[in-house]
Amino acid sequence: METRIVTVVGASGTLGSEIVRALLEKGARVRAMVRATSNRTKLESLGVTEFVVADLMDATSLQRALTAEPRAEAVVTSAAGFTTHSARTKGDNSRTDTEGYRNLVDAAKNAGVPRVILISILECDKAPDVPHFSQKFVTEKYLAEKRQPYLALRAGAFLDRAQDVVALKVRKGVFPDIVPGVALDMIYSPDLARYAAEAALDLPASALNQSVDIRCNVPATGPMVAAAFTRVLGRQVVAKPVFPPLFVGILPLVAWFVPRLQDQVAVLAWIRRGGYVSHESQKQKDLFGELPTIEDSVARYCRDKGLIKPTAS
Predict the structure, then answer these.
(1) What CATH code is carried by the domain that includes residue 63?
(2) Mean pLDDT, range 56-74, rounded to an integer
(3) Does any domain span residue 228?
(4) What is the CA radius of gyration of the chain?
């Protein structure tokens, strides 16, 4: 049987590399789409040997990448303008997540890509005031408008964070609580990556052309997650606010002078209103099985990060 090819857009990112790992574990051949300035070291260490250089803001490069032979049977994209790499390269976040994704969808449609798996954001259709959330919903709508077969995986907040400081803090007995007192839906990024790989390779065509909320079984507050760490590790872990109250109070004012912070202010306000909570879980169950629990996710995170010492054989 011929090895199936999947193109991964944003492959060099934190989540992108997890998606690559999940695809490789399923025996797929990964074609990593990267920018010319992207660091390929981690991808090469995972076993990726095929790279295509393209940029979401360069429609010609996207068309060339997606028509590379042999053709890929799926595109998985976790690329986003709101990243550290975009900041370093002075990328225009808004244009990347709007025009850039329109370019990608157009290129996929023109290339006859059988399916696009979009990593989207939980409840993004209800967040018009949060730029990089609402822009995901715009892309979902554009995929449908162009009749490009797709599946949008609307992910909750990452347990392990994009810039993961959780393990370091937990070693000191602290779980960093972004929005104290507010429950939000979470997901461990390797679980999201596994779902993306299954969506690219295994789900029937009848499962496409919809959005699916991706989360753990219950919304969780910081103290709930800290309690799960306590049970898993067998030692006390407490939730402590990431931001001091004074900083939270002045952040909107600071954002007037630092435009890049404005989106983060909008995100925090939306979470405080309860926005990061799904109202639909059946689709995830139907496509991927039972939802992971918070405690199981924490246990796997602890094992992956070396927080639990391996048992002697």
Answers:
(1) 3.40.50.720
(2) 95
(3) no
(4) 19
